Amino acid sequence: MRTATSGLCLGVDVGGTKILAIACDQSGSEIASSQVPSPQGVIPDGGMALADAVARVIDDVATQLGIGPAMLPIGVGLPGMLTLDGVLAFAPNLRSSSGANLARLLAERLGSVTIVVANDADCAVVAEQRLGAARGHDDVIMVTLGTGIGGGIILGGQLLRGGHGFAGEIGHMVVDIDGPPCPCGARGCWERYASGSAVGRLAREAAHAGRLAGLVAAAGGDAEAVRGEDVTAAALEGDSEALALMDEVAWWLARGIANLACVLDPSCVVLGGGLSEVTPLLIDSARQVLPNLLEGGADRPPIVLVPAALGSRAGALGASLIARSAA
Amino acid sequence: MRTATSGLCLGVDVGGTKILAIACDQSGSEIASSQVPSPQGVIPDGGMALADAVARVIDDVATQLGIGPAMLPIGVGLPGMLTLDGVLAFAPNLRSSSGANLARLLAERLGSVTIVVANDADCAVVAEQRLGAARGHDDVIMVTLGTGIGGGIILGGQLLRGGHGFAGEIGHMVVDIDGPPCPCGARGCWERYASGSAVGRLAREAAHAGRLAGLVAAAGGDAEAVRGEDVTAAALEGDSEALALMDEVAWWLARGIANLACVLDPSCVVLGGGLSEVTPLLIDSARQVLPNLLEGGADRPPIVLVPAALGSRAGALGASLIARSAA
Hints:
- The structure is a homodimer.
- By secondary structure, chain A is of the alpha/beta class.
- Chain A has helices spanning about 50-65, 100-110, 120-130, 195-210, 215-220, 230-235, 240-265, 280-295, 315-325, and strands at about 10-15, 20-25, 30-35, 75-80, 80, 90, 115-120, 140-145, 150-155, 160, 270-275, 305.
- The longest helix of chain A has 25 residues, at about 240-265.
- Chains A and B meet through β9 and α7 of A and β9 and α7 of B.
């Protein structure tokens, strides 16, 4: 008699600072959740600390439901490049787990369960396409603006994993060969121009060039002390110089989307991530310039550009949906 | 009794200068072919001249086979952006046919037949993946270097068309925001750096900067008169300055491939098109630098970079394969 768990599944979103687990019913409604801090070690431990933390948060949700974790399909979204076998090949924000096979480590801790691991932006795009902002679209790119830019891609209704599992690393398209260095080793990656850290960098450049006078004054006259958050807050209050800087960021955002559109021809692009407060500003501005940046702009149907609808739970929700599909 | 035609199909490759039709048997072997010049008009005629020419070359091949064209599945590859309905939405090299539905025009001329139209680079990648250089790979990007850069993409074994049919326009990814203007309207498109016309442009830049002294002398001392063909010929003869310029082109080629790899994660990239004489040079050089340009380069499996195997017939052959699949 397992009728209590029928249709339930569990999704986990592993971030750089916290790990969120939610249990969902068949309609995607959340019925239990738990959260723990992410392990912050940088010394490689084969993923042990991370697996322990993820197992703990899963156990906690299962306990809330009064069942064992082995009775649920479980999906885990991770920030990094995952091989098709589930190995975390490259994860700058989870260094201690680099090279670990999280699915196997979790199976060892939780007993015999269906555990699927996936890239976190892949989870988010699955959630937004099935239950959120991109419903009804088969060709969707999710662009998540955080410290960098993450990406999840659905083509013909199918999540794109790529030949080795590494598709969707859209933030590292180089758009300006002589641009600022990126932690990935290249110069001029898209995420240097349109992300949380990009707003800060562009703001400091603008401040050094004599713009953003009000914000520089508020920062004690030190151009280098102007932060991205100051600019987004000022933009939301209608400060014209801050709005002009957000227009620059939106232009770069649209430029990268146009690059992706050349390659993939999506019908819908969803904008999510940590810059969500200014997403409406960025979207309004990017919508203005995008048609002029698209090859054959006047001869092609417009691309629908929309804000993410599911907020910070999208990753965990999508992980649960991927687990349900795999179960 | 139609046993004579069983398994036969016909592929047409429409280029800017000529139209080639071939009939193939089930194994992809060519059993008849015909070629006519492409109509050169630029005044919009709704695709009439092009449809007449394509119908003529198809009729000719069918006559060689002693059958009517209505007995064969027919695929037609076209250079331009085709909607999923088969309308040539944007075709800078076939201006007179812009907006035409070639499949319908051909059906009217040839009677009731299976006619599929597709982008020419899409046809080429299908041929190379099924019968050529990318056999055994499910995630393939075909990069064709001509006047510009064309692209065909197969993901998970399926040809990528995109939400509107316009996927694979990879030459118009912007890689250098301050770069030279592109006929598409943007600046710094990839094809400004790695294509036939890019070799000429980079050669003239190098000549003006005092490099390529031998070629400048051969051009009567006029740096502006150095042509791309002069550089590729000199490189093939071992001229060190010309080889250095080809290394530059190869670096840009690899940079664009790395951009595509971030997004799509292919297992194989096929290089084809009009620069085929120097393709071995470009590939050798691009293979050296590609691993350093890939995000997580050391932590991911290498991408197989190979020259196209099917030469100038790939487009027509691929069109026939697409027709066979659709029939």
